[in-house]
């Protein structure tokens, strides 16, 4: 009897601990929608963001313009943290902020559940954003679930001092000329550089470079109906092989994984000479490479323009103050405000008018050798030709691909063929 | 018992009608006291079981229900699929890989942990100066949040810029590929777990050691046993029940290891080749990464079954050891 009771107690304790999963159905909440009256009652609006949106001063400004509104800012450290928070609270059906910032990479997953988000389409904002920016947040039925904030047009950041040492041209115009063309040209320049320098790699990571390349493919992993084509798509396989050829066989990669400790630390040593960089990356490089001189940015991107990342503001339908929230989101994402956010934290605006604003075009960056970053990034934004189709499984497939590249480039646990096999298995399991 | 027996004895027939009422009343109050005796103990322990039913049993059964459906984290319940989720998960190489990793990390952490904890406890049990200071000192790592421990150790275990590898290179050895080599990553994660839990277990052992009667040691000393002999022939056998407790809690905790492994890199999936993905991390990847709650729940249930089996095996083995200990 005694021992049986103990076994039962043990199993019970094990059960308690083993299963922390509680599933919740999602329920729609009653709400007044976004059509209600604004500006009359006192409201407190919560705004959830992550990383740096550059909104701190704008919130104060809005509160002064609208005395009935108090803004409560909830800032997550990383976009992954924000995504976990958003998903969990969507599933729970409560607890979200009145405005939630979301990132373009997980936008397609959310487009699957349009009734969780207020329809923000409005004649007043028609034509405010670059076409691809707005199209990405619009459902097939024409519902706009988010207002675009920033975008990630990419240039090439490089170390002018290391270029000079290797005997390559180092001012930003000549570098732009040298790197203009296809990805093969970029890799060929890399071979020349690596041959002439002592142990310095051409780029930081195979995964990051692949990211730049795949963002130029219209339908990389899914066709327009959302059917998965990733493993049969010869374009994907070609890019995979090309980037690994350059990284491993030709030794152009510094064999790092983005965001890992080693990657962060590598900015302090002369580990690599170039890096694909969207606007928001400038701040990251400046932070990691503090005290290192020689960084510059060239107005060029191999294989045509490319966009990497960027965010939106959404108004979840579970919120109680949707009309006020929509008004605030609209104000924040207006060109004038986004230019101020760019000045504050370097988040590059996705609004057409902002791209032409003098405040933006006149912007220079002291860390990058006083480069006219505003003008360069504006050129890069207009150079973007392809809007990649990102379906609901894009995030997961791209993740699996990044791991496939890391296995060969960083971990060296696999060769390109065996790693591709594992990628095929992983995609099959989604 | 005599009181309750009397209720059942039928009263003599001739006395029945005049005293009918009082008998009834007596019977009722006695019934109440009978209930009191029989039910109260259950009532007193019921809060635990009610709480367990709400926080333990309900999620357990609900998870089983979810695992039989296709179920999206946001979209909610889909159609009933029977055991399809289990079939799918059991056919995944990642699942079996996670099982292997979990056991490897569990063994690498639990075994050294128990051994070192006993050794530390033995030292603390000796006559030290500033005893309380040392005893509290071993508990300090336990107070640090596991994620903070992860951040600190990540810095130490970084492949290229980490302190450990720089030290290895400094003395002319090859650097260890902490984030690429499967076993090396398990050792690194086990180090974090051990850092956190060894001191805690040492205190439990210390408490048990202090409960060992001192005259046993005196007798051993008179018999001519040295310190080492006393430790192995007196201390360790007397600690058996405590060892059983520590081993069982370490098993349950070890099989559910999550925090340390998850913060071992930024992506938190257990490495590009899933070198250190544990079962709980696999649940996380399925449920929150892929938002497939059905499959995540299936893995959760499989993990539950594994823990029950291991806990029972553990129990049977340690009970046998304990019995032998008793006989000696």
UniProtKB/TrEMBL annotation, chain A:
Q: Which Pfam families match?
A: SBP_bac_8
Q: Which PROSITE patterns match?
A: PROKAR_LIPOPROTEIN
- The positions making up the signal sequence are 1-25
Give the record's keywords alphabetically: Signal
Q: Does the keyword Signal apply?
A: yes
- Spell out the protein name for this chain: Extracellular solute-binding protein
Source organism of this protein record: Arthrobacter bussei
Classification of source organism = Bacteria, Bacillati, Actinomycetota, Actinomycetes, Micrococcales
UniProtKB/TrEMBL annotation, chain B:
Q: Which domain of life is it from?
A: Bacteria
Q: Which residues form the ABC transmembrane type-1 domain?
A: 99-314
Location(s) in or outside the cell: Cell membrane
* Location, primary (coarse class): membrane
Which residues span the membrane?
42-65, 103-124, 136-157, 238-258, 298-317
Coiled-coil annotated residue ranges, if any: none
Q: Which Pfam families match?
A: BPD_transp_1 (PF00528)
Which family does the entry's similarity section mention?
Belongs to the binding-protein-dependent transport system permease family.
Name under which the protein is recorded: Sugar ABC transporter permease
